[in-house]
Design brief:
Layout: H1 4-11, H2 16-28, H3 34-41, H4 45-57, H5 75-85
Helix pairs in contact: 2-3, 2-4, 3-4
């Protein structure tokens, strides 16, 4: 079976959220350098660095996570998920 198009879906993501996910995944799970990731995805080194920085500092879950709490999330993301599910102060 020819899976070239299926592999391209993951190797060359076109949707913004999927590209961000794949960039972060390459950094955190594959331990690849920022420069390698930037070259693969055709973005600037500083763009990748900013995505990693913003993901670490996030005060809300990343947009590619489901809207409900998910078992197995790291404690930081559970805290962020709970925080994002709270109604705004003063909300009825």
């Amino acid at each position: 079976m020819d899976d070239r198009l299926c592999r391209r879906f993951f190797a060359e993501p076109r949707q913004t959220l999927q590209r961000r996910y794949e960039i972060l995944r390459a950094y955190f799970l594959e331990n690849r350098s920022l420069q390698q990731i930037a070259e693969q995805f055709g973005v600037n080194y500083y763009t990748v660095r900013a995505l990693v920085r913003d993901f670490r500092r996030a005060d809300q879950p990343p947009p590619f996570l489901p809207s409900r709490a998910v078992d197995g999330l790291p404690p930081m993301l559970h805290r962020l998920r709970r925080k994002s599910l709270r109604p705004p102060i003063g909300a009825v």
